[in-house]
What we know:
It is built from 16 helices and no strands. It is mainly alpha-helical. α6 (106-124) packs antiparallel against α7.
Amino acid sequence: MLSRTADNLFWMARHIERAENTARVLDVAHRTSLLPTDIEGAEAYLWYAPLNITGCAVDYEAKHGMAESRSVTHFMAFDPLNHSSIYSCLKHARENARAVRGAITSEMWESINTTWLEFNRLNSDINEERLPYLFEWVKERSHLFRGVTVGTILKDDAFNFNRLGTFLERADNTARILDVKYHILLPSVKDVGGAADYYQWGALLKSVSAFEAYRKIYRDVISPLRVAELLILRADMPRSLHACMNEVKNTLEIINGNTGHEARRRAGEQHAALHYGRIEDIFALGLHEYLTDFLERTDLLGQEIRNGYLLRRDEFATPHVRAAVQVQ
C-alpha cells in the first residue's frame, strides 16, 4: 500500500474517533453545568476541563479569554479554525476518505459523506436546548461508521490502518479525560468523597461508556482507584488504555513490513507495561505522572508509525498535533 493511502486511512479514522470523543466531553460538561453550585467562578473552572482535555486551552484563551459555556461549546463544536473541533474533525475525515475512495467501500464513503453534510445542516439551526441531541448524533454517526467499516471492508491493510488510527486516538483521549478529572475538574479538596466528587466520577465513566461496566464489575460506590483501574488496566473494557494498546500492538504486528520496527517495539513496550501493571504501583508513582508519561509515549508511538508507514512531510502532520494536558 502507498504511504499516502495509509496516511489518509489512518487520519480518517483518527478524526472520526476524535469527533466522537469531543462530543462525549462536551456532553458531560453540559450535563455537569446544570448542577447547582455556590462556588465562585465555577463556570469558568468547569469549562476549562474540556479545553484542557483536548489540548486547546491556549488557543481558546487567545481568541475568547475567560472560559464560559457558549463560547467553549462553539469553539469545540463548530469553529473551523480549531483543528480539534467536531466541525474540523468531520471535515478532515471526509477529505481523507475522498482521497482514498478506491481503498474504502461505497458504504463507508456514503456514511462519512452523509455525516458531514448533515452536520452542516444541523449546525445552521442548533440552539442550547438541542445541543444534547447533537452530541448524541455525533456519537451515533461515529458508531455507524465503525460498524459499516467492520461489516463491509476487506480485512486487508486498509482495514488495519483504519483500526490503528481509531485505537491510538481512543487511548490518547481516555488518558486525557482521566488525567483532567483527577487534577483539574474537582473544585476543592473538601469536595473529595462528596456528592460533587461522586457525580463527576460518574460523569467521567459515562463519557467513556463505562458506567454500566463499572457497576457490573465492582458493585460498589464509585472510587477513584477503581475507576482508574477500569480505564487503565482492564483489558475487557473497550475504551481502557490496556484494551486500546492490545489493538494497536496486534494491528502493527499484522501490518508488519520491512519498516516500522521501532513502532512495533514501542507498542509492545507500552502493551507489556499495561498488561503486567498494578494500580497500586500507578498511584504510588502518581496518576498524573503516569498518564503524562503515557501520553508522551503515545505521541512518540504516533511519530514512529508516521516515520515507518505514513507520509513524512511536516505539512501533513502539523494540523493534527494536540497539546499536552496542562494542569492548572
